[in-house]
């Protein structure tokens, strides 16, 4: 019996090690890029993608704590990748794909993120009476966020004839959005910028 005890302890130890290796620990901290500091209350969703599949399987969802921390335990399996989706109201969403080959079962997989607060520019564009079908207003957005569903692309936008419209362009909070404009060629033109306050909408009017 005395000889069996060390063997049993060794088996238990090896089994425990193997059990630990059968899961991934995914953890990190989310910070506020706009206001600085840690971001609490952000939702972090975890999806797994089985080998050969383009469809994600929802695994779990957690909220960041007061220090912006989050943590997941994911059972080891043959994944193509995992995906983390970070969301919080009035912040830009983050979607991050992590290849299976970059995941470790022996060490914590630490993934830190910074989320940016939303802000908006509201362009009010109106061609006043009398109007003509040949009237042209040209707006060139020169800077500002472009990589989101609510964002406006940089470049030219043209408006013709009787125009009375409002255009919203999302931007990162505490950032500038700059632009050029022309009315009927060079009849009137100029350039300007607006400062976008976090979580707020700044209006800019074009009446011509």
Overview of this structure, please?
- This protein has one helix spanning 4-20; strands at 23-32, 43-50, 57-63, 69-75, 79-87, 94-99, 109-110, 113-115, 118-126, 136-141, 155-160, 164-172, 175-183, 188-196, 201-207.
- It is mainly β and 208 residues long.
- It has two domains: 24-115, Sandwich (Immunoglobulin-like); 118-207, Sandwich (Immunoglobulin-like), CATH 2.60.40.
- The strands form four sheets. Strands 1, 4, 7 and 8 form a four-stranded mixed β-sheet that branches. Strands 3-2-5-6 form a four-stranded antiparallel β-sheet, with no helix packed on it. The protein has a four-stranded antiparallel β-sheet with strand order 11-10-13-14, with no helix packed on it.
- Residues 8-20 have low confidence and may be disordered.
Main sheet specs: 4 strands, mixed
Order of helices and strands: HEEEEEEEEEEEEEEE
Number of strands: 15
Spatial gap, N to C terminus: 97 Å
Which term fits the overall shape? elongated
| Helix and strand composition category | mainly beta
Would you tell me the overall average pLDDT? 91
**CATH topology assignment of the largest domain:** Immunoglobulin-like
């Amino acid at each position: 019996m005395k000889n069996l005890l060390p063997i049993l302890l060794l088996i238990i130890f090896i089994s425990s090690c193997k059990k630990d290796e059968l899961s991934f620990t995914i953890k990190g901290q989310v910070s506020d890029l706009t206001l600085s500091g840690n971001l609490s209350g952000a939702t972090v969703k975890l999806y797994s993608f089985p080998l050969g599949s383009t469809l994600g399987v929802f695994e779990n969802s957690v909220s960041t704590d007061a220090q912006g921390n989050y943590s997941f335990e994911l059972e080891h399996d043959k994944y193509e990748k995992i995906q983390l989706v970070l969301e919080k109201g009035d912040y830009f969403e983050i979607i991050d794909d992590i290849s299976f080959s970059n995941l470790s079962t022996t060490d914590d997989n630490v993934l830190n993120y910074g989320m940016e607060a939303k802000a908006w520019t509201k362009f009010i564009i109106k061609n006043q009476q009398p109007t003509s079908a040949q009237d042209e207003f040209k707006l060139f957005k020169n800077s500002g966020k472009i990589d989101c569903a609510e964002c406006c692309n940089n470049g030219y936008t043209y408006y013709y004839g009787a125009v009375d419209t409002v255009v919203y362009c999302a931007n990162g909070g505490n950032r500038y959005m700059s632009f050029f404009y022309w009315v009927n060629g060079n009849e009137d033109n100029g350039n300007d910028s607006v400062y976008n306050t976090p979580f707020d909408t700044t209006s800019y009017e074009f009446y011509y």
